[in-house]
Amino acid sequence: MLAYVTLGSNDTDKAVAFYDEFMATLGAKRLFDNDRLYFYGTGPGAPMLAIGGPYDEQAATCGNGVMPALNAPDRETVDAAHAKALALGAVDDGAPGERVPGFYGAYFRDPDGHKICVCKLG
């Protein structure tokens, strides 16, 4: 049901550099852009994450309670993605671990402060 989620950035060049490297740990890549938004995903028809400046050209802000969760194929990928994000300058917001039975996740804040979860369900 989800097509894509957009995260605003106040430094698109920095955000794109971060996500170009980070998304590769999840098997995703930049699929296309329109000089304002940069879309990442695993292929046509799959959910995407978009990064870019807000359409209204006002400052981007983090939504309180907004947290995209990115699916990983296994726990090892969750661990690797979290470590990669931190190596790229993200801030730890929850080390990898099982939160409830069947949900293994890790959390970080990207360069713009957006909270991101990487998880393995099941």
What's this entry about, in short?
By secondary structure, the protein is an alpha/beta fold. Helices cover 20% and strands 39% of the residues.
Mean pLDDT: 96
- Return Rg in Å: 14 Å
> What percent of residues are in strands?
35-45%
Largest sheet: 4 strands, mixed
What class would the helix/strand composition place it in? Answer: alpha/beta
| Low-confidence sequence ranges | none
What's the CATH H-level superfamily name? 2,3-Dihydroxybiphenyl 1,2-Dioxygenase, domain 1
Secondary structure: helix percent: 10-25%
Shape: globular
- Per DSSP E runs of 2 or more residues, the count of β-strands stands at 8
Q: What's the architecture, going by CATH?
A: Roll
Task: Name the descriptors.
single chain; 122 residues; alpha/beta; 2,3-Dihydroxybiphenyl 1,2-Dioxygenase, domain 1; four-stranded mixed sheet; 2 helices; 39% strand
Describe the protein.
This protein has a single domain, classed as 2,3-Dihydroxybiphenyl 1,2-Dioxygenase, domain 1, CATH 3.10.180. The two termini are 19 Å apart. The protein is globular. By secondary structure, it is of the alpha/beta class. Helices cover 20% and strands 39% of the residues.
Write the topology of this structure.
Elements: E1 4-8, H1 12-22, E2 29-33, E3 37-41, E4 48-52, E5 69-71, H2 75-87, E6 91-100, E7 103-109, E8 115-121
